[in-house]
Write a structure and sequence with these properties.
single chain, Jelly Rolls, Arc Repressor Mutant, subunit A, six-stranded antiparallel sheet, four-stranded antiparallel sheet, 10 strands
C-alpha cells in the first residue's frame, strides 16, 4: 500500500479520521444537514480516504496549516485532481462522484470545515432571475452542477468570519443560532468572492478587469504597484479602478490591500509562530511602527498578542 496509506470508504471523511486516529477532530451538528468540523491533526502516518459515490453535501472551509491533495470523478468526467495548501479556502460541490483525499504525516492539519446537505441548501437559495444572482447559485438551485471546486487564498473577510466562529461568545441554543448564521454568512462570502452579483454600473468586461486587478494586487502584496500601474495592467483608468473596487469589495484599492496584509500577517503569527517584525516584513510593511498602528486599529490589540499566544494555542 502506497506510503502505508489506509483506504477507508466513508462519505463524511472527518468522522472516519476521528474514529481511526483518535485525534482532535470536533464535529458539531448545528442542525440536521449542517455540520461544522474543527480539525487539529498530527498524523503518525499518511492517510488515504476514498469517498464512494453518493449525494455529497456542499463543502467549504479554510486550511490554516498543512497540505492535502485528492481527486474527484463524476460520470464520464476524467479525474479532476486538486491540492489545498496552508492559507487557502475552498468551496466545493460534486454530487454523485467518487472522491479521494490524502493527508500526510509530516503536514499537521489545522482546518475548519463546513458541510451543508443539498436539501437544506435549497431552502436558502430560491431560484432567481439571471440578473439577480451568480451562475454558480443558479446552477446549484437547478441541480445542473456535476463538479465545482474552487480553491483560493483566504481573504480578510473569510478570515474574520472564521475567527468569529472560533470565538463564539454564546452558549446553548444561542450558540447554535449564532454559529449557523455565521456559517451561512461565510458561504455567501465565498460565493460572492468567486462570482459576485452583477452590478448595473459595471459591464461584465470591466468587472472581470477589476477582479484581475485584485489578483495582481495581492500577488504583489510585498511590493505593490502604484494605482496607475495597476490600472494600466488591468486596462482601466485609475479612477474607474478605484470606484470599481469600492463597488465590488466595499473598499478602495489600497484599503483592500491593507486589510489583506493585516489578515495575512495575523495568520502568519497564529499558524507559523512568526514574530511581529517577521510577519510585517513578509506582507510588505517597511515600518514596524506603521504596522503596529494599523494592526491595533484593525484588531484592538498589538500584534505581539498573536505572535506570543495564537488563537490555536
Amino acid at each position: 500500500m502506497l506510503d502505508q496509506r489506509q483506504a477507508l470508504p466513508d462519505r463524511i471523511w472527518p468522522k472516519t479520521l476521528a474514529s481511526i486516529e483518535d485525534k482532535n477532530i470536533v464535529i458539531t451538528n448545528l442542525r440536521p444537514g449542517i455540520r461544522m468540523i474543527q480539525m487539529d491533526l498530527q498524523l503518525d502516518r499518511n492517510v488515504y480516504i476514498r469517498e464512494e459515490s453518493g449525494n455529497s453535501p456542499l463543502e467549504f472551509g479554510c486550511l490554516f496549516s498543512g497540505f492535502v491533495k485528492g481527486s474527484s470523478r463524476s460520470g464520464d468526467r476524467k479525474n479532476a485532481a486538486f491540492e489545498c495548501a496552508q492559507g487557502q479556502s475552498w468551496l466545493s460541490y460534486y454530487p454523485w462522484s467518487d472522491n479521494s483525499i490524502e493527508y500526510f504525516a509530516d503536514k499537521p492539519i489545522r482546518a475548519f470545515v463546513f458541510q451543508i446537505e443539498y436539501t437544506v441548501l435549497r431552502e436558502y437559495l430560491p431560484a432567481m432571475e439571471e440578473t439577480d444572482t451568480s451562475r454558480f447559485q443558479r446552477d446549484l438551485v437547478s441541480g445542473d452542477i456535476t463538479y465545482y471546486n474552487k480553491i483560493k487564498s483566504i481573504t480578510s473577510n473569510v478570515f474574520t468570519l472564521v475567527d468569529q466562529i472560533k470565538s463564539c461568545p454564546y452558549q446553548g441554543v444561542l450558540k447554535k443560532l449564532y454559529l449557523e448564521s455565521k456559517v451561512f454568512e461565510l458561504l455567501v462570502c465565498l460565493i460572492d468572492a468567486e462570482a459576485g452579483k452583477r452590478k448595473k454600473s459595471l459591464s461584465r468586461a470591466d468587472e472581470e478587469r477589476i477582479r484581475q486587478a485584485r489578483e495582481i494586487l495581492l500577488e504583489n502584496m510585498e511590493s505593490p504597484l502604484s494605482l496607475n500601474e495597476l490600472a494600466k495592467k488591468a486596462g482601466l483608468c485609475a479612477t474607474k479602478l478605484n470606484k470599481g473596487f469600492r463597488q465590488l469589495y466595499k473598499n478602495s484599492v489600497f484599503g483592500l490591500l491593507r486589510e489583506e496584509r493585516l489578515a495575512k500577517a495575523r495568520m502568519l503569527m497564529e499558524t507559523q509562530e512568526k514574530r511581529a517584525c517577521e510577519a510585517a516584513w513578509e506582507v510588505g510593511y517597511s515600518s514596524l511602527s506603521s504596522f503596529h498602528r494599523a494592526f491595533h486599529r484593525k484588531y484592538g490589540v498589538n500584534p505581539g498578542f498573536y505572535s506570543k499566544t495564537g488563537t490555536f494555542n
